[in-house]
Each structure stands twice: as structure tokens, then as C-alpha cells.
Amino acid sequence: MRGEDQRTYERIGKCVVNEDGEIVELEKEYYRQGWIFKDEYAFYHEPKKPCYVPEEEEEGFYTREDFLALCNGQEDIAEMIFAEVDWQHPEAYFEEQFQCGELGLCQSCGKIFMSYGVDYCPYCGAGRGEE
Fold first, then answer.
1. What is the model's pLDDT at position 4?
2. In the chain, helix, strand, coil percent, each to 5?
3. Pairing of strands 112-114, 103-105
4. Cα-to-chain-centroid distance, residue 125
């Protein structure tokens, strides 16, 4: 099947929403560190559908659009955050990455980038001293 996505997508649990965007059925499964719902196919192919529900959440969910909004519209960062969350809210994980130096925000171009061990913004070349 040429041109079709042959990737296998992981789905943990089940999340069904009605036309009003309310969860009507939620089944979480244990994944790495917590009980969650996570759907890779929805993340990559259905940007408005639920793709993640963290452990402590029962009524709300996250879509690909939510991850992109959190990450300044940057797909690479949104994909990294989605791949790594395994119990927590994406906002908490995102902030933790800044606090521990894994992510940085370039003050020159406004882009978020993987910053551990990096001296310059990979987008505009601004140095750490210019941030």
C-alpha cells in the first residue's frame, strides 16, 4: 500500500466524547507511571479528537490542537511532550522541561528549542547571552 501510513499506533484506554465535547465514556489503563488514556493515532491524524487524559483528570481531555497551542505551534516540541507524558498534565511536564534546562525559549526569535547542552538557538543562531 504505497503512500499509506504503515505505522502501528498505540492506544491506551478508551475515551468517547459526544458532539458537545463532553466525555461520555472513559477507560484508563496503566502506562509507565499512571492511569491514563492516550491515543497516538488521534494525536497524529485527528487533531480535534481526544488524544490524552492525564491520571488526575476525569472530565477534560487534550487534543493535538491543545498540545500545539501549549508549544507555540511547534510540531516537534508538541510531539516530544505528547510522547513523554505518562500521568501528568502536559502543562506541568512542559514547565518542568524548562526548569530542568531541557527546553529553552529564544528571546530573539521566540521559538522553543531543545536546549540541553546547546549554546545557540537552532532557528536563528542567537547565543545564550542574547536570550
1. 60
2. 25, 25, 50
3. antiparallel
4. 25
- In the prediction, which pLDDT does 127 show? 79
Among all chains, which residue has been given the C-alpha cell 458532539?
19
Model confidence pLDDT, tens digit, residues 10-26: 999 999 999 999 999 99
What is the SS3 string spanning 38-72?
EEHHHHHHCCCCCCEECCCCCCCCECHHHHHHHCC
Same-domain check for residues 107 and 117: yes
Contact 24, 16 (CB under 8 A): yes
Intra-chain end-to-end CA distance of the chain, in Å: 47
Query: Same domain, yes or no, for 28 and 68?
Result: yes
Q: CA distances (Å), 14 to each of 22, 67, 68, 72, 128, in order?
A: 14, 19, 22, 28, 43
Q: Do β-strands 103-105 and 23-27 pair in parallel, antiparallel, or remain unpaired?
A: unpaired
pTM of the model: 0.90
Sequence letter at residue 71? C
Closest C-alpha to 80, from 46, 112, 56, 108: 112
Asked if residue 55 and residue 42 are part of one domain, the reply reads yes
